[in-house]
Amino acid sequence: MDKNLDIQIEEALKAYLASGVEDQVDYQKFYLYSIVTHSTAIEGSTVTEIENQLLFDEGIAAKGRSLTEQMMNVDLKDAYLHAFKMAAENPTYTPKLLQQLSALVMRRTGSEYSTIAGKFDSSKGELRLCNVSAGIGGRSYLAYNKVPQAVEGFCKWLNDAIAKVDRNDVAACYRLSFETHFLLVTIHPWVDGNGRTTRLVMNMIQRQLGLVPSIVRKEDKGEYIQSLVDSREHEDSTITQDTMLRHHISNLNRRVLQYQEHDGVNEGQSINNDGVNIENDGVKRLNKTLQRVYEAIANKPEIVSAELMSILNISESTVTRSTRELKKLGFIKREGSDKTGRWKVLI
């Protein structure tokens, strides 16, 4: 378990909430659309956020997209609206509730199955009556006849964990939600829709605990899936927890910087670690890329190159060139090693 991430998520969430980014008109709605778009993209949907906005708000179908993937997005959006409403009521998690959520997720894209063990309908959220594996040559999930008991045990664990978690401990609450996702997707209760449904449950718990829901971005799909595989292979769920914490920290920081760049912070201003605007005429003379790199470093001196690349959507060579130029101009300097050190803002 990376304890540094526990500190970073506290700082990132504090900065995010203080930035005012959530005060934008319809921000919560569009944030939900982003969650939905990325979750379905992980499962192969090619519908974009803009196309989903038109589909959800205007009923305009996306050209060139299959009906199945568009219905997948509509169903997941409706499932989230239902789940977030339930989250406000501090629900008790039961197998029946989980099946209801799965039924909403699979409402229009689920199917009936006939197996040796009997018939079941994934559009109704019914538990699978067949064995499944994680892709060709992949490790088999829990035998179907053990799934009901495993789901019962999972619900008992989850209700106990939610009751005991310190809701003032942001990192502990996020880790609980990520652990929930890992445990449930490892049981793999359904024949289809496990990823979407278990991420939905994860986000539902985050809302229930007063957190900003996390987004598993399609750009992070490979690392996300590999973390689940590694956690199963090593029987260590903290691998998944650390990966998802790191991604969520980057997403929160990215959204704050985007908001500051376009709306929240005037050109030539930067943000210190307390969220205070720092007016600096020298910054105004920098080009836009150098300004963005400088502001990111001023906001988070311990930031690393990979995070700058992710947040600012720039290449590694651009990060290297920009930090070298900022050091040459006397705006920043490096204290300690590239791996464990931090930046010091000089201007």
Notable traits:
14 helices; 347 residues; mainly alpha; Fic-like fold; globular; two-stranded antiparallel sheet; two-stranded antiparallel ribbon; 59% helix; Arc Repressor Mutant, subunit A; 2 domains
Kindly describe this structure.
The chain is built from 14 helices and 6 strands. The longest helix has 27 residues, at 238-264. It folds into 2 domains: 3-251, Fido-like domain (Fic-like fold, Orthogonal Bundle); 266-345, Winged helix-like DNA-binding domain superfamily/Winged helix DNA-binding domain (Arc Repressor Mutant, subunit A), CATH 1.10.10. With 347 residues, it is mainly α. The strands form 3 sheets. The chain has a two-stranded antiparallel ribbon with strand order 1-2. A two-stranded antiparallel ribbon has the order 3-4. The protein has a two-stranded antiparallel ribbon with strand order 5-6. Strand 5 and strand 6 (342-345) form a beta hairpin. The protein is globular. The relative contact order is 0.10. The two termini are 36 Å apart.
